[in-house]
Amino acid sequence: MIRDQETQTLLEDSLRRFINEVLVPAEEQVAETDQIPAEIIEQMKELGLFGLTLPEEYGGLGLTMEEEVRIGFELGQTSPAFRSYIGTNNGIGGSGIIIDGTPEQKEKYLPRMAAGELIGSFALTEPEAGSDAGSLRTTAVRDGDFYVLNGTKRFITNAPHAGIFTVMARTSTEIKGAGGISAFIVEANTPGLSLGKIDKKMGQKGAHTCDVIFENCRIPASQLIGGVEGVGFKTAMKVLDKGRLHISSIATGAAKRMLRDALNYAKERKQFGQPIANFQLVQGMLADSKAEIYAAECMILDAARRRDAGENVSALASCAKYFSTEMCCRVADRAVQIFGGAGYVSEYGIERFYRDVRLFRLYEGTSQIQQVIIAKDLIRNDSI
Predict the structure, then answer these.
(1) Which intervals hold domain Acyl-CoA dehydrogenase/oxidase C-terminal (predicted)?
(2) Is 126 in the active site?
(3) Of 67, 68, 74, 364, which is the active-site residue?
């Protein structure tokens, strides 16, 4: 659902200019330094990018799901590090508070998140609980008006920059599986919370992850999201439904960028006395990429509109995430092939994208987890 087409078009146009004039020229610097320049972060704050999806009453833009994925198609067309830095506030780092938080929790945190003054992070994955999120071991034991947290979270996006964490922890040892999990807001300066070293990753330089460690970390009971125990896993799944559509749009945007770069190179690079774009085998790779990008866009927009209409889109979000992220990696592979030897050296940047986009198939649920979700939905509902 697009609330006002003129406003949406203006937002997309201004973002596109910012990406082309500011972010794209800074990509190589970010990759080399593993840092986003402070002046770019300030510009992102001024543009309101930290609060794109946060409710208007808390200073955000309150984008609908369709509006958000259309922005994602644009944001994906530059280094994923930029999207990652603002993405947790708009996605998994803020969604739990928006969806299930109490009015007091929303009032306390969302305005600062919308302004970019506070970075939110989502702490679900653990050393022994990744795809099997229901088996997490971090505990939160009630002690009067407090909870005491113990455990370790792994690969937590934006953890080195975060001011608050949405933490999934087990509040009941008697209830096995997902039913014993609750969600908490934990402030980064809470005694007993510490961070591990920043992970050295295959790609996505400038986007930082690390362990988050809780050792007798004592937080007020008021930090329990929604004020109710045992619904944390449901909160996490609601967050991931939305996040998967967001990542799908980012992956599709990245595929568009790589196809555009490959097309421009194919039209300029000459072999046998003519541009390689004239050769049918190259044309086949370009055509396959265009067709798959178009298919992904259609899937994502359809699922987004259905979510805006109030439908349960868990399976459709998984379909979109599975197809678009796998598609993105196929486009990356074809782009490197079209560039030939030039695609394997850092000067052209396509090798950086090749490494960066590989992560899309892993986080917020691996491709195999998406397949399981889709298949279980088919079997349960007996509808295609």
Answers:
(1) 231-378
(2) no
(3) 364
